[in-house]
Amino acid sequence: MDDEWICGRLGEDEPWMLGAVNPPIFENSLFTFPNAAELGEAIRNEDERYVYWRGTNPTVDLAQRKLAALERAERAKCFASGMGAISATISSLVSAGDHVLVLGAVYGPTTQFLRYLEKFGVTHTHVVDLDACDSAIKDHTRLLYFESPSYMRYEIFDIPAVTRWAAGNGLVTVMDNTWSTPIFQKPLTMGVDLVVHSLSKYAGGHSDLVGGVVAGPSRLIRPLALTEYQLYGAAMSPHDAAKVIRGLRTLPVRMAAHQERGLAVAAFLEGHPAVRRVNHPGLPSHPGHRLALRQMSGFSSLFSFELATEERDEVAAFLDELRHFRVGVSWGGFESLVNAPALSTEESVRATMGIPAGLVRLSVGLEPAETLIEDLGGALERMGDA
User: Looking at the keywords, is Magnesium present (predicted)?
Assistant: First the structure.
């Protein structure tokens, strides 16, 4: 099925929609049944039946169906945040005494959550590349977790090679696909077992919701939906699900525009003398560019670059010189944002992932690329004059 059809129309011509152009928002906290037998049957299958908001909801279910179809997954489960999806997914796959392999740089709070799991006897090891996995794997390793492109550094991993290695060693693979969205990359078709997303980013697209999703086969999603989803209580609200559905309607169009603007800004920075390097896999100079072209159909507009400094004060001064880029966390909305890990991420976490102090992250929004380039150029010049 075509991605644009999935985003705009999948599930929206069914009788329960009553012909509404926008899906109804079911605000009720519970559903009732004609008799006790039907209630009991529904509770036993609460991952699929509407019983209580904390289980599922028709508006949320429509968002889940669309996201599953986009990822070519059997099922998807939406959460109240990206970390809700990540923590529930990891928890569903490990037990006390298990070990997790983390390939490359990943979202900082994901690493923090893995550290939190140490109190329950779950350990983890960070490795920089697939070759290092051979020496880091243990008898009790159960899970390999990664992002591609990787967090902050935007390195590209050979997804089919990673999944073949993991399957050969009996490991489940979980990949964060937020950067590319399923419009530009479909990891499940390359052997990944489960895919997670922050829906707060490109999927929502308007910086007005927080949400997450995990997608994959029913054999892995159903137990997660019945246990971790229910017990952790990170249920997505129907209002946020409606915003996800709204965001998906324009996702293919927005991603094309993000790609165009992001590449223009990255190309400008690559030629600037005050910039050491630009980490954007869409640039031909990126070490993983050719691999990216094989397993991705496009590039988002989130990337990083390294200033020619290691001083936090100089990095902060550069951010303060910008006029059109807003200083803030998150990404994927209309607005262009700038952030620097040295100002917001634990030094120990940065060291683990090899993120230098001079690294700056840009989320290029949908403003004119020329305006953003002029803004960056002026800030770099004023920084050099200081």
Answer: no
